[in-house]
Backbone:
């Protein structure tokens, strides 16, 4: 199934909804980072959330960043999406393994631990918007719902899932976000609460062949579901040699001199896609000279 996100409304605009199928994207991330199944589930849930949140961005240079930092063995999660739903991300400790939890599921909460969730929206304004909440559970979907409700004052239901096969490949992944707008009345609220409570895990729905349209249709079809956008998403990094050069320059002259003297060069690796860029002693010297040239 193609990876994509849909954006929709229902209840005469009183409900905003998103749904996604992201199995290919998550499997690409798993292979690039050689993730344990547990790490793949944690990163995949976060990438799915980022894709659904980013689908509303309009500016070509707009970006959305999700940062999850906990005291569990996973260490942390960083995911970035642009407005074209090119999503990239990594976990601090990709080989995290834990026993299954008491429900027989991957123990994402135990891997993440206690900590905080940051959402950074850079929409080309003078300052990016930064939202911050403490982690409520570490399960990521619950934490995202809490973030929307507390930081953005939008009551939300969030479901995120990654289904891993016995050979550690990703069978499917996806999720949905349902949000109540201020005009939602008690009837709509009660209807949504009932529908959310009745739904099986989102991975079960996708594994059974349900598309994002099917999932939202089941939940919102009775209250006038209207699908507004269908946007492909993918795992794609925007790193380049030029970006890495800028990163080296940002280290400053003293650090560049140290690299030249002690290492005679440098190898720079992208956290998001593991691509490696080699810089020779001469190239580092040229960068240093560019810093020291009079302006």
Residues:
């Amino acid at each position: 199934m193609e990876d994509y996100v849909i954006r929709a409304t229902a209840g005469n605009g009183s409900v905003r909804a998103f749904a996604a199928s992201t199995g290919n994207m998550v499997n690409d991330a798993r292979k690039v980072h050689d993730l344990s199944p547990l790490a793949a589930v944690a990163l995949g849930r976060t990438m799915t959330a980022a894709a659904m949140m980013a689908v509303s961005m309009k500016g070509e240079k707009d970006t959305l960043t999700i940062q999850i930092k906990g005291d569990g063995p996973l260490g942390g999660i960083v995911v970035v999406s642009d407005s074209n739903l090119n999503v990239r991300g990594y976990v601090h400790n990709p080989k995290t393994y834990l026993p299954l939890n008491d429900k027989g599921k991957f123990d994402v909460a135990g891997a993440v631990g206690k900590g905080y969730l940051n959402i950074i929206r850079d929409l080309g304004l003078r300052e990016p918007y930064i939202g911050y909440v403490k982690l409520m559970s570490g399960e990521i979907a619950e934490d995202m719902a809490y973030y929307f409700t507390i930081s953005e004052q939008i009551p939300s239901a969030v479901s995120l899932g990654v289904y891993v096969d016995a050979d550690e490949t990703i069978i499917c992944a996806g999720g949905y976000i349902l949000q109540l707008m201020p005009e939602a009345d008690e009837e709509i609220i009660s209807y949504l609460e009932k529908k959310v409570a009745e739904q099986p895990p989102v991975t079960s729905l996708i594994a059974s062949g349900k598309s994002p349209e099917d999932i939202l249709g089941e939940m919102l079809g009775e209250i006038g579901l209207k699908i507004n956008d269908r946007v492909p998403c993918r795992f794609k990094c925007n790193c380049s040699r030029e970006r890495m050069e800028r990163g080296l320059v940002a280290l400053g002259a003293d650090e560049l001199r140290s690299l030249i003297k002690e290492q005679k060069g440098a190898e720079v690796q992208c956290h998001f896609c593991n691509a490696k860029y080699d810089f020779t002693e001469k190239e580092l010297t040229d960068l240093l000279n560019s810093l020291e040239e009079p302006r």
Summary: Residues 241-292 form a domain with the CBS domain Like fold (CATH 3.90.1280.10).
